[in-house]
Design goal:
There is one protein chain. The protein is an alpha+beta fold. It contains seven helices and five strands; from the N terminus they run αααααβββββαα. The protein has a five-stranded antiparallel beta sheet, with helices on one face. A hairpin with a 4-residue loop joins β1 and β2. α1 runs antiparallel to α4. The model has no long low-confidence stretch (mean pLDDT 92).
Length: 212
Protein backbone atom coordinates (compact mmCIF):
# COMPACT_ATOMS: atom_id res chain seq x y z
CA UNK A 1 0.00 0.00 0.00
CA UNK A 2 1.32 3.44 -0.97
CA UNK A 3 1.64 6.26 1.60
CA UNK A 4 -1.70 8.08 1.89
CA UNK A 5 -1.61 9.95 5.22
CA UNK A 6 -0.52 13.58 5.31
CA UNK A 7 1.43 14.78 8.34
CA UNK A 8 -1.40 16.88 9.76
CA UNK A 9 -3.82 13.96 9.32
CA UNK A 10 -1.50 11.72 11.31
CA UNK A 11 -1.25 14.32 14.07
CA UNK A 12 -5.04 14.49 14.15
CA UNK A 13 -5.26 10.71 14.48
CA UNK A 14 -2.65 10.82 17.26
CA UNK A 15 -4.77 13.36 19.10
CA UNK A 16 -7.97 11.35 18.67
CA UNK A 17 -6.19 8.18 19.79
CA UNK A 18 -4.97 9.84 22.99
CA UNK A 19 -8.46 11.18 23.68
CA UNK A 20 -9.94 7.73 23.13
CA UNK A 21 -7.50 6.05 25.54
CA UNK A 22 -8.16 8.68 28.21
CA UNK A 23 -11.92 8.42 27.72
CA UNK A 24 -11.93 4.63 27.95
CA UNK A 25 -10.09 4.75 31.25
CA UNK A 26 -12.50 7.32 32.70
CA UNK A 27 -15.70 5.26 32.41
CA UNK A 28 -16.86 1.68 32.91
CA UNK A 29 -20.17 2.24 31.15
CA UNK A 30 -20.08 -0.02 28.08
CA UNK A 31 -22.69 2.02 26.20
CA UNK A 32 -20.69 5.21 26.71
CA UNK A 33 -17.48 3.48 25.65
CA UNK A 34 -19.09 2.09 22.50
CA UNK A 35 -20.40 5.53 21.59
CA UNK A 36 -16.96 7.13 22.10
CA UNK A 37 -15.30 4.48 19.95
CA UNK A 38 -17.85 4.93 17.15
CA UNK A 39 -17.53 8.72 17.22
CA UNK A 40 -13.73 8.58 17.19
CA UNK A 41 -13.69 6.11 14.32
CA UNK A 42 -16.03 8.34 12.32
CA UNK A 43 -13.90 11.41 13.00
CA UNK A 44 -10.65 9.88 11.79
CA UNK A 45 -12.28 8.49 8.64
CA UNK A 46 -13.85 11.88 7.90
CA UNK A 47 -10.38 13.45 8.07
CA UNK A 48 -9.78 11.96 4.61
CA UNK A 49 -11.58 13.00 1.43
CA UNK A 50 -11.13 9.63 -0.20
CA UNK A 51 -9.95 6.24 1.01
CA UNK A 52 -9.59 2.88 -0.68
CA UNK A 53 -11.17 -0.07 1.10
CA UNK A 54 -7.75 -1.20 2.38
CA UNK A 55 -6.94 2.29 3.66
CA UNK A 56 -10.31 2.64 5.34
CA UNK A 57 -9.94 -0.75 6.97
CA UNK A 58 -6.56 0.23 8.39
CA UNK A 59 -7.81 3.55 9.77
CA UNK A 60 -10.94 1.92 11.17
CA UNK A 61 -8.85 -0.31 13.41
CA UNK A 62 -8.75 2.57 15.86
CA UNK A 63 -11.86 0.90 17.31
CA UNK A 64 -9.65 -1.91 18.62
CA UNK A 65 -7.60 0.34 20.90
CA UNK A 66 -8.09 -0.43 24.58
CA UNK A 67 -4.98 1.03 26.19
CA UNK A 68 -1.74 2.91 25.52
CA UNK A 69 -0.02 -0.23 24.25
CA UNK A 70 -2.70 -0.74 21.61
CA UNK A 71 -2.47 2.95 20.69
CA UNK A 72 1.30 2.78 20.18
CA UNK A 73 0.97 -0.31 18.00
CA UNK A 74 -1.81 1.28 15.91
CA UNK A 75 0.13 4.51 15.38
CA UNK A 76 3.38 2.69 14.59
CA UNK A 77 1.60 0.90 11.75
CA UNK A 78 0.14 4.15 10.41
CA UNK A 79 3.55 5.88 10.47
CA UNK A 80 4.64 3.65 7.61
CA UNK A 81 2.02 5.30 5.41
CA UNK A 82 2.77 8.97 6.08
CA UNK A 83 3.48 10.96 2.91
CA UNK A 84 6.86 12.51 3.79
CA UNK A 85 7.69 16.12 3.13
CA UNK A 86 10.15 16.16 0.24
CA UNK A 87 13.68 16.41 1.57
CA UNK A 88 15.29 19.58 0.28
CA UNK A 89 18.96 20.32 -0.21
CA UNK A 90 20.65 23.50 0.91
CA UNK A 91 20.99 24.66 -2.69
CA UNK A 92 17.31 24.00 -3.46
CA UNK A 93 16.32 26.12 -0.48
CA UNK A 94 18.66 28.94 -1.48
CA UNK A 95 17.21 28.88 -5.00
CA UNK A 96 13.77 29.57 -3.53
CA UNK A 97 15.04 32.82 -1.96
CA UNK A 98 17.29 34.23 -4.72
CA UNK A 99 17.24 37.79 -3.33
CA UNK A 100 18.46 36.78 0.12
CA UNK A 101 22.21 37.04 0.45
CA UNK A 102 23.92 34.70 2.92
CA UNK A 103 20.69 32.83 3.66
CA UNK A 104 20.95 30.88 6.91
CA UNK A 105 19.61 27.41 6.10
CA UNK A 106 18.51 25.17 8.99
CA UNK A 107 20.40 22.00 9.92
CA UNK A 108 18.76 19.73 7.35
CA UNK A 109 20.02 16.48 8.87
CA UNK A 110 18.10 17.19 12.08
CA UNK A 111 14.74 17.89 10.46
CA UNK A 112 11.97 15.28 11.01
CA UNK A 113 10.69 15.50 7.43
CA UNK A 114 7.88 12.97 7.86
CA UNK A 115 6.18 15.19 10.47
CA UNK A 116 6.08 18.35 8.34
CA UNK A 117 3.28 20.13 6.57
CA UNK A 118 5.67 23.01 6.03
CA UNK A 119 9.34 23.74 6.62
CA UNK A 120 9.87 26.83 8.74
CA UNK A 121 12.82 28.37 10.55
CA UNK A 122 13.96 31.67 12.02
CA UNK A 123 17.19 33.50 11.28
CA UNK A 124 17.63 35.32 14.57
CA UNK A 125 20.49 37.37 13.21
CA UNK A 126 18.38 39.03 10.53
CA UNK A 127 15.14 38.70 12.53
CA UNK A 128 13.46 36.99 9.62
CA UNK A 129 11.42 33.83 9.37
CA UNK A 130 11.21 31.57 6.33
CA UNK A 131 8.42 29.19 5.32
CA UNK A 132 8.43 26.61 2.53
CA UNK A 133 5.57 24.34 1.54
CA UNK A 134 4.34 22.44 -1.50
CA UNK A 135 0.93 23.59 -2.73
CA UNK A 136 -0.94 23.14 -6.00
CA UNK A 137 1.90 21.13 -7.53
CA UNK A 138 4.52 23.78 -6.88
CA UNK A 139 6.77 25.09 -4.14
CA UNK A 140 5.68 28.17 -2.22
CA UNK A 141 8.35 30.09 -0.32
CA UNK A 142 7.63 32.98 2.03
CA UNK A 143 9.94 35.25 3.98
CA UNK A 144 9.06 37.96 6.43
CA UNK A 145 10.09 39.98 9.43
CA UNK A 146 9.61 38.07 12.68
CA UNK A 147 9.22 39.74 16.05
CA UNK A 148 8.86 37.33 19.00
CA UNK A 149 6.12 38.17 21.48
CA UNK A 150 6.78 38.25 25.21
CA UNK A 151 3.49 36.48 25.91
CA UNK A 152 1.90 33.22 24.69
CA UNK A 153 -0.78 33.62 22.06
CA UNK A 154 -2.91 31.80 19.52
CA UNK A 155 -0.98 30.76 16.41
CA UNK A 156 -2.68 31.62 13.11
CA UNK A 157 -1.40 28.39 11.58
CA UNK A 158 -2.08 25.68 14.16
CA UNK A 159 -4.61 27.58 16.33
CA UNK A 160 -2.93 26.38 19.52
CA UNK A 161 -1.66 28.53 22.41
CA UNK A 162 2.12 28.70 22.09
CA UNK A 163 5.06 31.08 22.26
CA UNK A 164 4.34 33.21 19.18
CA UNK A 165 5.77 36.08 17.19
CA UNK A 166 4.50 38.54 14.60
CA UNK A 167 5.30 37.41 11.04
CA UNK A 168 4.95 40.30 8.58
CA UNK A 169 5.39 40.42 4.82
CA UNK A 170 5.58 43.70 2.89
CA UNK A 171 4.81 43.96 -0.82
CA UNK A 172 4.84 46.83 -3.29
CA UNK A 173 1.47 47.40 -4.97
CA UNK A 174 2.26 48.49 -8.54
CA UNK A 175 -1.25 49.80 -9.13
CA UNK A 176 -1.19 52.25 -6.21
CA UNK A 177 2.52 52.64 -5.63
CA UNK A 178 2.00 51.87 -1.97
CA UNK A 179 3.61 49.24 0.22
CA UNK A 180 1.16 46.76 1.70
CA UNK A 181 2.10 44.94 4.90
CA UNK A 182 0.28 41.88 6.14
CA UNK A 183 1.01 40.07 9.35
CA UNK A 184 -0.11 37.27 11.64
CA UNK A 185 1.05 35.82 14.93
CA UNK A 186 2.51 32.35 14.45
CA UNK A 187 4.52 29.86 16.50
CA UNK A 188 8.14 30.70 17.21
CA UNK A 189 8.90 26.98 17.07
CA UNK A 190 7.88 25.78 13.58
CA UNK A 191 8.51 22.13 14.45
CA UNK A 192 6.10 22.42 17.37
CA UNK A 193 3.63 24.20 15.12
CA UNK A 194 3.73 21.33 12.63
CA UNK A 195 3.05 18.86 15.43
CA UNK A 196 0.08 20.95 16.60
CA UNK A 197 -1.35 21.21 13.09
CA UNK A 198 -4.21 18.74 12.71
CA UNK A 199 -6.11 20.32 9.82
CA UNK A 200 -4.52 21.89 6.75
CA UNK A 201 -7.36 24.40 6.32
CA UNK A 202 -5.96 26.97 8.76
CA UNK A 203 -2.52 26.71 7.20
CA UNK A 204 -3.88 27.28 3.69
CA UNK A 205 -5.84 30.30 4.93
CA UNK A 206 -2.67 31.72 6.45
CA UNK A 207 -0.69 31.24 3.24
CA UNK A 208 -3.41 32.85 1.13
CA UNK A 209 -3.69 35.86 3.46
CA UNK A 210 0.04 36.48 3.41
CA UNK A 211 0.80 36.01 -0.27
CA UNK A 212 -2.22 37.75 -1.86
Amino acid sequence: MEPFIRAEQFHYIENQTATLVNSRSSTNDQAVRSAMIAITQEKVIDAFHTLTEDQKQMISQIDQIKDEGDALFFLSRLKQYIIPFTKLTEQQIKNMFPKVKKLQVPELQAIPWHTLTYLGWTDHGSKRKYIITYLDQEWTALQGEFTPSHHPGICSICHETEEVGLFTVSKHDKSTGETITRGNYICQDSERCNYNLKDKTSFLQFINRIRT
